[in-house]
Specification:
Blueprint (H helix, E strand, L loop, with lengths): L2 H32 L6 H12 L2 H7 L5 H9 L8 H14 L6 H20 L1 H4 L1 H22 L4 H31 L9 H10 L3 H7 L6 H10 L7 H14 L6 H15 L3 H7 L1 H25 L2
Helix pairs in contact: 1-2, 1-4, 1-5, 1-8, 1-9, 1-10, 1-16, 2-9, 5-6, 6-8, 9-10, 9-13, 9-16, 12-15, 13-14, 14-16
Length: 311
């Protein structure tokens, strides 16, 4: 496979996953903003900007942080490369460049999503409501993933697509967990338990609410949330699951390239596979997540060097 083709497929998947991730985060932020007596309202609104690293860019065009300004910035702002509009536009451009490597169903799914998103942008948010738009984006992401998984050959093109998905997802999980932890910690009142709704919001932003209550009894706790989101071998958005998927996908790609990325990924997966939540909490979750993010970024850099920079 040409390195340019592999790169486009990889970034198509990363951009689509990024759009879904910000959708999930905005959905939770929107719900929290509607709650009466919500704690730390401004910090909740700042969380998506901090997680995505877009705070400075936001302040260049908006004087104050508000729910309306935040939604406008992340939904349809074409100058914001991290907006849903920009991510899906970029993903569609990537897909168009490698159309022959996609199934007709996968291509039609992403192309239709882009065309309808443009139409929805013209109508504006008020016409459809924020909640309806966010649910639509999530559903379109699921549809593309299902079409690709069910109709594409599971060859190198497919492996690079899934690789992009899980690299982006691992990065997102670590970022959300790190920033949400900072917000929740800052809202402690005399070292009392963190607010029940904050923990629910964190789980919902990662699609893990039902999984948590299936796996644990006795209510929400920092220990159990940390264990689920970092060490679970079954949760599709946990760090261990994502890193394991990356490791398996790198092994499935034909050829001798990517040896450094494979080694780094195997080392990180071993840390997670044999890790214990008590060690993470003793070490400090913030420090642990910072180290994980650094390792994930290094793996991403090695993938870039191995498969399309040096090819």
């Amino acid at each position: 496979m040409l390195s340019r083709t592999a790169s486009n497929i990889y970034w198509m998947a990363r951009n689509l996953e990024r759009a879904e991730n910000i959708t999930r985060l905005l959905d939770v932020t929107h719900n929290m903003a509607l709650m009466p007596n919500s704690k730390g309202g401004r910090q909740e609104l700042l969380a998506p900007l901090t997680i995505t690293g877009r705070l400075d860019q936001f302040h260049e065009r908006h004087q104050q942080v508000s729910a309306d300004a935040l939604m406008d910035f992340f939904l349809f702002d074409e100058l914001n490369e991290g907006s849903i509009y920009s991510c899906i536009q970029a993903a569609r451009g990537n897909a168009h460049s490698v159309r022959d490597n996609l199934s007709s169903e996968a291509w039609e799914s992403i192309n239709t999503t882009w065309l309808e998103l443009r139409h929805r942008r013209q109508k504006g948010i008020s016409h459809q409501g924020v909640k309806g738009l966010l649910e639509w984006v999530k559903q379109r992401s699921h549809e593309f993933r299902g079409a690709a998984y069910g109709t594409m050959l599971h060859n190198n093109a497919f492996h690079f697509m899934r690789l992009g998905t899980f690299i982006e997802r691992a990065d997102n999980t670590a970022r959300i967990l790190r920033v949400k932890l900072e917000v929740m910690t800052s809202q402690r009142d005399n070292n009392q338990a963190i607010d029940f709704y904050q923990w629910n919001a964190l789980l919902q932003s990662l699609g893990a609410y039902e999984a948590y209550h299936y796996s644990y009894t006795g209510g929400l706790s920092a220990r159990n949330v940390t264990e689920l989101l970092t060490l679970s071998a079954e949760l599709p958005r946990s760090l261990r699951y994502c890193v394991g998927a990356i490791m398996n996908l790198l092994s499935a790609i034909e050829g001798n390239q990517g040896l450094a990325a494979k080694r780094l990924c195997a080392e990180l997966h071993a840390r997670l596979e044999y890790g214990q939540v008590e060690f993470i909490l003793d070490f400090g979750l913030q420090n642990y997540l910072n180290d994980l993010l650094r390792r994930i970024h290094t793996i991403g850099d090695e993938i870039h060097r191995s498969y399309w920079e040096g090819a």
